Protein backbone atom coordinates (compact mmCIF):
# COMPACT_ATOMS: atom_id res chain seq x y z
CA UNK A 1 0.00 0.00 0.00
CA UNK A 2 1.04 3.61 -0.60
CA UNK A 3 2.78 5.48 2.25
CA UNK A 4 0.14 8.24 2.02
CA UNK A 5 -2.49 5.75 3.22
CA UNK A 6 -0.68 5.77 6.59
CA UNK A 7 -0.74 9.55 7.02
CA UNK A 8 -2.97 9.44 10.13
CA UNK A 9 -0.95 6.65 11.74
CA UNK A 10 2.31 8.50 11.08
CA UNK A 11 0.81 11.68 12.55
CA UNK A 12 -0.21 9.69 15.63
CA UNK A 13 3.38 8.40 15.98
CA UNK A 14 4.56 12.03 15.61
CA UNK A 15 2.18 13.32 18.30
CA UNK A 16 3.03 10.45 20.69
CA UNK A 17 6.72 11.35 20.21
CA UNK A 18 5.85 15.00 20.96
CA UNK A 19 4.29 13.95 24.28
CA UNK A 20 7.18 11.58 25.10
CA UNK A 21 9.81 14.17 24.17
CA UNK A 22 8.47 16.90 26.46
CA UNK A 23 7.82 14.41 29.29
CA UNK A 24 11.41 13.15 29.12
CA UNK A 25 12.69 16.73 28.88
CA UNK A 26 10.81 17.74 32.05
CA UNK A 27 11.86 14.56 33.90
CA UNK A 28 15.52 15.02 32.94
CA UNK A 29 15.46 18.74 33.67
CA UNK A 30 13.86 18.30 37.08
CA UNK A 31 16.35 15.55 37.92
CA UNK A 32 19.51 17.50 37.05
CA UNK A 33 18.28 20.76 38.59
CA UNK A 34 16.90 19.30 41.80
CA UNK A 35 19.24 16.41 42.54
CA UNK A 36 22.43 17.77 40.97
CA UNK A 37 23.48 14.18 40.37
CA UNK A 38 24.21 12.24 37.20
CA UNK A 39 21.30 10.84 35.23
CA UNK A 40 20.17 7.27 34.92
CA UNK A 41 21.56 5.85 31.75
CA UNK A 42 18.15 5.21 30.16
CA UNK A 43 17.08 8.78 30.86
CA UNK A 44 20.11 9.93 28.87
CA UNK A 45 19.53 7.52 25.97
CA UNK A 46 15.71 7.50 25.58
CA UNK A 47 15.38 11.20 24.58
CA UNK A 48 17.72 10.65 21.61
CA UNK A 49 15.64 7.74 20.35
CA UNK A 50 12.36 9.63 20.81
CA UNK A 51 13.69 12.85 19.25
CA UNK A 52 15.08 10.98 16.23
CA UNK A 53 11.65 9.39 15.71
CA UNK A 54 9.97 12.79 16.18
CA UNK A 55 12.14 14.33 13.47
CA UNK A 56 11.82 11.34 11.12
CA UNK A 57 8.00 11.24 11.43
CA UNK A 58 7.83 15.04 10.99
CA UNK A 59 9.93 14.88 7.83
CA UNK A 60 7.81 11.99 6.50
CA UNK A 61 4.61 14.00 7.10
CA UNK A 62 6.16 17.03 5.39
CA UNK A 63 7.03 14.85 2.41
CA UNK A 64 3.46 13.45 2.30
CA UNK A 65 1.85 16.91 2.24
CA UNK A 66 4.56 18.19 -0.13
CA UNK A 67 5.44 21.09 2.14
CA UNK A 68 9.07 21.75 2.93
CA UNK A 69 10.72 24.02 5.51
CA UNK A 70 12.77 26.91 4.04
CA UNK A 71 11.20 26.18 0.67
CA UNK A 72 7.41 26.45 0.40
CA UNK A 73 6.03 26.36 3.93
CA UNK A 74 6.30 29.25 6.43
CA UNK A 75 4.79 27.32 9.32
CA UNK A 76 7.17 24.35 8.82
CA UNK A 77 10.11 26.78 8.65
CA UNK A 78 8.90 28.27 11.96
CA UNK A 79 8.69 24.76 13.46
CA UNK A 80 12.23 23.85 12.42
CA UNK A 81 13.64 27.18 13.70
CA UNK A 82 11.74 26.51 16.95
CA UNK A 83 13.15 22.98 17.08
CA UNK A 84 16.72 24.33 16.74
CA UNK A 85 16.05 26.82 19.59
CA UNK A 86 14.57 23.99 21.71
CA UNK A 87 17.67 21.83 21.13
CA UNK A 88 20.06 24.74 21.85
CA UNK A 89 18.24 25.57 25.12
CA UNK A 90 18.37 21.88 26.03
CA UNK A 91 22.16 21.92 25.54
CA UNK A 92 22.42 24.88 27.96
CA UNK A 93 20.20 23.08 30.48
CA UNK A 94 21.96 19.71 30.32
CA UNK A 95 25.53 20.61 29.43
CA UNK A 96 25.71 24.28 30.27
CA UNK A 97 27.40 26.22 33.05
CA UNK A 98 27.17 25.18 36.69
CA UNK A 99 24.90 28.11 37.51
CA UNK A 100 21.48 26.73 38.45
CA UNK A 101 19.74 30.00 37.60
CA UNK A 102 21.11 30.01 34.03
CA UNK A 103 20.15 26.37 33.51
CA UNK A 104 16.70 26.77 35.05
CA UNK A 105 16.06 29.84 32.86
CA UNK A 106 17.12 27.89 29.76
CA UNK A 107 14.78 25.06 30.81
CA UNK A 108 11.80 27.40 31.22
CA UNK A 109 12.55 29.08 27.88
CA UNK A 110 12.70 25.64 26.24
CA UNK A 111 9.21 24.86 27.59
CA UNK A 112 7.88 28.12 26.13
CA UNK A 113 9.51 27.39 22.77
CA UNK A 114 8.02 23.90 22.81
CA UNK A 115 4.53 25.31 23.47
CA UNK A 116 5.11 27.73 20.58
CA UNK A 117 6.03 24.84 18.24
CA UNK A 118 2.87 22.94 19.20
CA UNK A 119 0.77 26.07 18.60
CA UNK A 120 2.39 26.49 15.18
CA UNK A 121 1.63 22.83 14.37
CA UNK A 122 -2.01 23.09 15.40
CA UNK A 123 -2.74 26.49 13.80
CA UNK A 124 -0.43 26.01 10.78
CA UNK A 125 0.46 29.67 11.19
CA UNK A 126 4.13 30.67 11.61
CA UNK A 127 3.24 33.03 14.49
CA UNK A 128 1.43 30.28 16.43
CA UNK A 129 0.11 31.56 19.76
CA UNK A 130 1.96 34.83 19.16
CA UNK A 131 -0.78 35.68 16.63
CA UNK A 132 -2.81 37.16 19.48
CA UNK A 133 -0.04 39.74 20.09
CA UNK A 134 0.69 40.69 16.50
C1 LIG B 1 9.57 19.74 18.90
C2 LIG B 1 9.25 19.51 17.64
C3 LIG B 1 7.85 19.30 17.12
C4 LIG B 1 6.64 19.39 17.76
C5 LIG B 1 6.37 19.79 19.22
C6 LIG B 1 5.60 19.07 16.79
C7 LIG B 1 4.24 19.04 17.06
C8 LIG B 1 3.26 18.63 16.18
C9 LIG B 1 1.85 18.44 16.48
C10 LIG B 1 1.23 18.64 17.87
C11 LIG B 1 1.23 18.06 15.33
C12 LIG B 1 -0.28 17.73 15.15
C13 LIG B 1 -1.00 18.95 14.67
C14 LIG B 1 -2.49 18.69 14.43
O1 LIG B 1 -2.87 17.55 14.19
O2 LIG B 1 -3.26 19.64 14.47
C15 LIG B 1 2.21 18.02 14.29
C16 LIG B 1 1.96 17.71 12.98
C17 LIG B 1 2.89 17.82 11.97
N1 LIG B 1 4.25 18.07 12.11
FE1 LIG B 1 5.24 18.36 13.85
N2 LIG B 1 6.21 18.79 15.58
C18 LIG B 1 7.57 18.93 15.75
C19 LIG B 1 8.54 18.77 14.78
C20 LIG B 1 8.27 18.65 13.42
C21 LIG B 1 9.26 18.69 12.37
C22 LIG B 1 10.78 18.84 12.59
C23 LIG B 1 8.58 18.57 11.19
C24 LIG B 1 9.12 18.54 9.78
C25 LIG B 1 10.02 19.32 9.30
C26 LIG B 1 7.18 18.46 11.50
C27 LIG B 1 6.16 18.34 10.58
C28 LIG B 1 4.82 18.13 10.86
C29 LIG B 1 3.80 17.91 9.86
C30 LIG B 1 4.00 17.92 8.33
C31 LIG B 1 2.58 17.69 10.54
C32 LIG B 1 1.22 17.33 9.94
C33 LIG B 1 0.43 18.52 9.56
C34 LIG B 1 -0.94 18.13 9.02
O3 LIG B 1 -1.75 17.58 9.77
O4 LIG B 1 -1.17 18.42 7.85
N3 LIG B 1 7.03 18.50 12.87
N4 LIG B 1 3.45 18.37 14.82
Word description of this protein:
- The chain is mainly alpha-helical.
- The protein has one domain (about 5-130).
- It has helices spanning about 5-35, 40-65, 75-95, 100-125.
- The protein binds protoporphyrin IX containing FE (HEM).
- Protoporphyrin IX containing FE binds near residues 59, 62, 79, 118 and 121.
Low-confidence stretches: none
Question: What portion of the residues fall into strands of 2 or more residues?
Answer: under 5%
Number of helices: 4
Distance between the termini: 44 Å
The radius of gyration is 16 Å
**Helix and strand sequence:** HHHH
- Tell me how many strands there are: 0
- Morphology call: globular
How many domains, in number, for the residues? 1
Q: Give the class from helix and strand content and strand pairing.
A: mainly alpha
Determine the oligomeric state from the structure.
single chain
Mean pLDDT: 94
Q: Percent helix among the residues?
A: over 70%
Q: How would a textbook summarize the main sheet?
A: none
Report the bound ligands by name, code or SMILES: protoporphyrin IX containing FE
